Amino acid sequence: MKSKKASGFTLVEVLIVVVIMAVLAATIIPQFSDSANDAKEGTSEFNLHTIRSQIELYKSQHDGLVPSDLSKLTEVTDEDGTVGAGADFKYGPYIRELPVNSFTNLNTVTTITNSPAQAGDVTGASGWLYNATTGTVFIDHADHFEK
Q: Rounded to two decimals, what is the model's pTM?
């Protein structure tokens, strides 16, 4: 009589493979979560730079005045910053719409009085923090408001 040897993996072999996969997962998964955070940070900083550069353009066309609120960047204005239409309203719009803060997924604005923004100004309930006196804008996020 010929004996048949059972084919397949032993329990030890299967456990070794599972342990190897767990070690690989433990080293790879944190890298993916860091890249998502890095992407949010990069996008928010790019949007912040865009808003800041458009505020500077607004200032140069309005004799150094800053917009009273960031929604003015999406409007057509005259040289005094009054929103309207017609031949006298030749400045803007500077941006089509206010960009979204990637951390909060909001494009709303909270007006602050500090410049630079302070930790107490950060609510996380809006996209941006804006000081209408100085024309400075910041990211409304606890870890990134100082940028």
A: 0.75
